[in-house]
Amino acid sequence: MCGIAATALKPPYRKDTVQLLINLLKALEYRGYDSAGVAVYDLDSGRIHVWKKKGKVAELARMLEKVRLNASSGIAHTRWATHGPPSDVNAHPHTDCLESVAVVHNGIIANYKELKEELIRRGHRFESETDTEVFAHLFEEYLRTSEPFEAFKRAVSRLEGYYAIVAITTKDPYKVFFARKESPLIVGRGIKGNFVSSDIVSLLGVSEEVAPLSDGDVGWLDSEEIFVESEGKRKSLSFFKPSWSPAQAQKGSFEHFMIKEIHEQPQAVKETLTSVISEWEKVMEVVRLMEEWTAVVAAGTSYHAGLVFSYLLMKLSGRFVPVIDSSEAHHYSKVLRGTVIAISQSGETYDTLKAVRIAKENGAKVVGIVNVVGSTLDREADVTVYTRAGPEVGVAATKTFLTQLAVLGVIARAYAGQSKEEVGAAASRLPDIVAKGISMSIGYAKELSRTLAEKRDMYVLGTGVSYPIAMEGALKIKEISYVHAEAYPAGEAKHGPIALAEPGFPVVIVWTPEDEDKLSVAHEEFASRGSEVYWVGPEKDIPFPKVEWHEVPFAATPPLQLLAYYMAVRKGLDPDKPRNLAKSVTVH
Ligand code: F6R
Prior knowledge:
By secondary structure, the protein is an alpha/beta fold. The protein has 18 helices and 23 strands. The chain starts with a strand and ends in an 18-residue tail after the last helix. The protein binds fructose -6-phosphate. Fructose -6-phosphate binds next to helix 10 and helix 16. Residues 299-302, 344-346, 349, 352, 396-397, 475, 479, 584-585 line the site of fructose -6-phosphate.
């Protein structure tokens, strides 16, 4: 949900500022691609230059190809529109009346209408419809009577809502000012200078060490120093070296990040399993916490991982834990107690964090299943178990899903009383199953995508453990190929969904050995009405290896991801940047 990046570079590198900011924006683009913009303070002309444009970063990059200003500070933004439609004028950065301030923002300023009216009464002129522009004018207002950092803090103190906000001003052109409340911001120290950004991935190539900011932090950086205050007191940050390498966040020879990340799954699952099993004490701590009432909260793909976990746990141990969609979790606040397991690859999903905060208010212990070390969920959870997927750049979650299943499978087995050795033995087959799930299905998925890409609607059916996998497959198809795919339990179809069955209507059935009859009956019901029925399963239309029921998620997920991927590619769509979506959903 909007990507922010800013820097102050040391003197020898200042002419690289604009190009470096463009590179950071390219890495952040998965957070929004409605528009992109850059503002820098140019020491030679003594003013702030702003460039911004509706559309993708590549268009802005073309426009700025030759720009090499001697910049002491700069900010950049890629937008996922909330207030005001995507347009050049609504693109960030926003400036004040005097062009003495430029601001980028991620989040929502809830009281922007009142602030805007107040500022208009004071004579400020507004250009855009965004909530962000009020901050530029507020900062301008306080700069009349206060030193820049004081003015910035006074402006921040007027904001209601949530934000990551970053600004530069002509009044102190060597500094970048920043503040965070419930939207991620990370600072980074590098050889060329200092940085602040919405995520660690964008900082990989430029920062040796990073430190996430916390809610309420406000500060500034210049090329030498990073200064942060919390509740009016100077705060020392805990910097760490990111474990991800810059190369991991590159496409390499693949056409898209999504296909690269699908292919990385066997290794990602392997690394995750090795890591989680080696931290057996932590697994047992989670098991002990689960002796209390336990609920799971998660969104989107992570929610589907939660459903697989709940099913596995119930089958292996008889224990049932509810899985609550994070966006609905506040309605279920009474059951967010005991132990709450929050699953989130980014660790920044607003709805999931909100559920976690409700749980903590209720006195619950929180277990986070997280891919991003240092993310907000990681820091707020009582215990974090990491997935080791590496950076996931494609907006649609792929490898993070299977690594979540790997972690959750270990926890479910440990809860069911299996020893470390037993869990290790069961886990050892999984990376190979994933690899075969990819290699056996890829050609068939590509071929079937030819037919399915032409369709408007389709069903994806499953039963038992293959039902949440059907849900995940339908989500992938919907979000990247824009074909309306809905998942149902196979037996549920006859209670309504079958009304859509007619010649040419496609149905994909996800095999599991648990109840093949149920799946075959659904097949007959649809086929007899002329529907086109395709199976994903051993020796089926899209094949994967014959596996035990509990291994089905690892075998069946890659074929469905590949189907979605090739459907999108056939339609000429960019699977890495599906319309209206952003990787990290930090708004409510
Ligand atoms: C779907 C997808 C989203 C995320 C959801 C939760 O491909 O990526 O549905 O799964 O926004 O994100 P995290 O896991 O970061 O909390």
